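Running this now, will post back.
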Amino acid sequence: MMKNNRRKIAVIMRSYNDSDVIRQTLDMLFKQTISDFELWNFDSTSSDGTLDIIREYNTPKRIILNDSSTYNPGCVLNDAVARIDADILVFLNSDASPTNEHWLESLIQPLSDPTVGSVYGRQVGRPDCRSLFVKDTERAFGDGIEASRWLHFFSMANSAARRSILLKNPFETRIQYSEDIDWSYRLKLDGYRIQYAKDAVAMHSHNYTLKQSYKRHFGEGSAEAWIFRHGELKLNWQRTFLMPFVLEVLRDFKWALQERSVDAAIHTVPLRLTQKWARWRGQKTGMKTLSPVMD
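Update: finished.
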């Protein structure tokens, strides 16, 4: 295994009831070519055996519990940054399993450039990932070209940053979703580059039901109203809901034809209708709740 003699590295792993996948993630983490890192587990008091698995891989002093009923991602992440003494902090969700032994090496390499504020790695769907979620994951990540055209994109589930930057730029605690988008967007506005490491690949996907999709997209839409509160969002029904819905369905049908996926063709309309309507409603609700006095 390769030793890292220059910088102290710590891996921060958040988890909640991930007993079906966390062992795979931990096994791959400890097979990395860079082996001299500290693992810190932040678990939301799992009840499915996740904690028992974590204890096989880590010492009690580096296993921190939080209450899932009051969980706030920004608070947990800020606590992790404050308590861990390392030069580089790597963020790896317990359900984001590295796909090879060079994942960590590929992820942290761009941080040698002082103009890079943070790095995020590629994500791919798990073997059981539903067709449209496979398509979405590949579109958002893949070669990185598509996401580079968007207003902003980032994912904390498979990422890394220097602790010095994290201390100066803490995570927002007033939002419950998209804290990683908010944090990395502020870095970009400060002049840092956000680097995509396409070779740092982790399997990470969720087969959301329509109800779960609505909740997530509503939450992300509400958070976007806060993140892009200085005029970046141009909200109107046609631009925010109708056009994204129609274009996504058209892309889905094209992809379904190419992949010969009946599942994608059948589910595109209900899924996209749910997602786009929820995000539109979330953004509108978020705009209404913004404080008149914004920082």
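Residues 210-289 form one domain. More later if anyone needs it.
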